[in-house]
User: Fold this.
Amino acid sequence: MSPLLLALTLLSQTPAPAAHAKSPQVEAKKDKGDTPPRVLSELARQLLRPRMERHGHDMMMLVQGVLLLQRDVVAELAKNIAAEPRLTRPMVGGEDDLNAALPERFFVLQDELHSRAGTLATAVKTDSDVALAARLGEMMQTCVSCHSTFFPQTDGGMP
Ligand code: HEC
Assistant:
């Protein structure tokens, strides 16, 4: 199991995705899934990949930071994610923009990640150790929402 999957498993306290890829729950979700599936263009995915590889790394460090009560680490990583430049919505008349390849839901979730990372960064100063774990969990929900929306629904896993 990759460290990222391990981290996700630790936080969510559910079996690793690979372990329940074929579970009834997943099948049910597929059945009432979006039709047509909201799949991103190959170009959009290539654009996103380096950013996502960074997110994966930052998420592991965040999990470790929260687990080991390293508030400085959590503050810095959460701030970085919150400050990350966001892909902008295509402008009217800019249908040929690269970002026009991304649907509105993508931008909504991107904004949500930004705000939840900001909340986590602030919580480092005010919240209890346990509450920080909840804030991190909320931020991770946004990661998962986006993956759940945009990963191709072939085997319920990563593209
Ligand atoms: C707004 C949508 C969105 C959000 C929010 C999002 N992701 Fe992703 N992520 C994607 C998409 C789309 C891909 C698939 C890209 C591709 O096709 O390679 C992806 C892929 C990944 C990958 C696999 C990268 C690889 O090696 O190919 C990792 C790891 C990842 N995301 C981590 C995260 C983490 C951690 C967060 C939250 C901090 C997050 N993502 C938030 C859309 C999102």
